[in-house]
Amino acid sequence: MFASQSTSVSSMHNPRADSDLRQLTTPTNSTRRIQRFALAASAAAGLALLAVPCWVLLQAGHGSMAASGAIGACLLAGVTVQQASALAAQRRRATKVIQAQQALSRSLAGQLEDERRRIAGDLHDSLNALLIRIRLDAQGIARATVDRPADLAAIRGRAGDISDHVATLYAQCSALMQKLRPEEIDLVGLHETLSDMIHGYNRAHPSCAFALAVDGNPRTLPSDVGIATYRIVQEALSNAIKHANATQVRVQLRVDAEHRHVAISITDDGQGLEMTRLQRGRGMTGMRERAQALGGSLQVDSSPGAGTAVTAQLSW
Prior knowledge:
Elements: H1 2-12, H2 15-25, H3 29-50, H4 55-60, H5 63-144, H6 153-180, H7 183-187, H8 190-204, E1 209-215, H9 223-244, E2 248-256, E3 261-268, H10 275-280, H11 282-293, E4 297-302, E5 308-315
Parallel strand pairs: 1-2
Antiparallel strand pairs: 2-3, 3-5, 4-5
């Protein structure tokens, strides 16, 4: 009985039906292609959503390859825009830092000039007044001994020495005050002050011809720019005297008030110097810091036997 039932069940099995079922349930090459196409379509749809701002580029494309290329271009453009935005933000932050540093340097330079002005005033008000009184006393001693016996000649000589020493000290103090704070800049202006400086160098160093040329109106310069210009010229001329052994030194200023800019040039025909030696100098560092504090720059070109050129660009 069981055998007959088994035979009956076996006879009910249809191999063709099994084959059809397997074809329906087992992935074939065509179904795999359909699945891959569906996945690709889903991915393309996702990319299209991300690239909505670039729909114009999609419309301009023809076919799936053009659309895919447009989407890729849009995504790449988006990344590039983000990077450019980040770089722009970094540049803005760096610019703010530089501006803050320049403002601090300018403030410190202003405070230094104020301190120099105060010291110069103290020297003038106290030390110079005392020296003048000493000199007058010495001159009084000399006059008092004119009609006395010959043994007072030594007193007159000593009094004369005192007067001479005080006069020398007075001149040195005046020169020191001039270095600390040239009051002529406030009284007569930068152009006249530089002219006096050039005349002084010509008198003190007759073997070298010093010249000044000014283009524009230096009176339009702000006080801090005028002081920086004076200090740069002062230091450059000092270096020329100490190291250049030149026969000609030329100072030139070009003031552009419209564009708030001044160009400074000091050149000589001397023996020149090695740049490494120049860079180590404290004076060179001071000139460069003055220029940078005003958002400017300073450059020195020199080589043995070729003279020296100091150029500075200042803005306000």
